[in-house]
Write a structure and sequence with these properties.
This protein has 470 residues and is an alpha/beta fold. It has 16 helices and 12 strands. It has an 8-stranded parallel β-barrel, surrounded by 5 helices. Helix 3 packs parallel to helix 5, helix 8 packs antiparallel against helix 9 and helix 15 packs parallel to helix 16. The structure holds 5-hydroxymethyl-3,4-dihydroxypiperidine. 5-hydroxymethyl-3,4-dihydroxypiperidine (IFM) binds next to loops.
Length: 470
Amino acid sequence: MSTVHDRTEPEVPECAFPPDFLWGVSTAAFQVEGSVTADGRGPSIWDAFCARPGAVVNGDTGEPAADHYRRMPSDVALMRELGVGAYRFSLAWPRVRPDGGAVNPAGLDFYERLVDRLLEAGITPWPTLYHWDLPQALEERGGWAARATAHRFADYVGAVVDRLGDRVGTWTTLNEPWCSAFLGYASGRHAPGRTEPRAAVAAVHHLLLAHGLGTAVIRDAVPTARAGVTFNLFPVTAADPADEADRETARRVDGLQNRLFLDPVLRGRYPDDVLTDLAPYGLGEMIRDGDLDHIGAPLDLLGVNYYRDLHVSSVPDADSGPPSEWVGAEHAGFPKRGLPQTDMGWDVNAGELTGLLLRLHTEYPRLPLYVTENGAAFADHVDGDGVVRDTERIAFIEAHLRAAHAAVARGVDLRGYFYWSLLDNFEWAEGYAKRFGLVHVDYPTQRRTPKASASWYARVMADNGLAGRR
Ligand code: IFM
């Protein structure tokens, strides 16, 4: 296990957040629910992908996950005990429209019960409409590479907001479309496991179109609701800032990871340099009249998922290998810097979160920002006395909260922070091998053991920050 020491000096010693700051925890349907055939749920691309030999570590699947579908009432009670202000979860599209077509009322019933439980517990429901579990039937009709999928998403959003729109105040359309497009359709490391760069680029545009069409459906159904989207954003630095090729690679990677998503949504246009970089893969050919009006329609907030930064060189190295998800920056390398790492092998560089939030604040039209995910996997275990001593996770969260607070102190309109994740869960291609939770899950028994970080985070939420803690 690596050791996390953040090297940034806290810029603001007191570290109290604004009084109405929202403290939350995140999960996603496929990662926690289990019960993949219950109550009419159809198969998703992740069910199909898990069935492929070698696709997921240990051959793990969406069963049992954290059995949240059946244990939802006690999980909500646990959140209440911790003092969570908001629960960010996702709805499984294949529960709601199992084959992408007809609505399955029983699937919606589950989310209605969840939302009602949360409201009774005084916890704000914060649903995401798409966190990677496309109905397999839609993949068989082309998946996100097909434009029609964006319209099916709008149909699905309609069914959800019809049922829950009177109780949910804030909607997120997509979680991390970069992953859906490039991991799903370029490197094939995620479902649906395709390795077709042109399809990945088409998927980007169709996911963004789905976001725009879905936002319009939300606006029509519930004019008072707030709508947003969540991107995984990465500060990008050149390994050698004096090296022109490294700087050029950094520009490309920043374009493909960040600006490809931020600019159309927040400025209503794709960046010229990214259009050029992706021209060989047909990005420009995907765009039809009116698409960018939908995609760039005004939003109420932006969700930022921050885990790490990217340090790039123009030469692939032995460690990073050929980065096949980097369509348009195929020669990028990601050299190691000797920073501490989490169990995912991701560098810990909390201080970069300050710069990322400041960049969003200064370079894009001002929107309330929320850190909708931040967290770390470590090789946690329950000690003989029943305690999970995850001190590295506490250090990780603390360092990131200090970095977030430094941005707030410099005027950034950051309104909330959600830890990823409430529970240990199915970490996609890594299966159950990686544990991100504040709460340890023993999968065979489904026993929940709040880790030391859970009680630490509960105190932070109660104190509205780290004030007085150091
Ligand atoms: O588990 C994922 C989540 O589904 C999306 N954001 C990153 C997390 C950790 O990899």
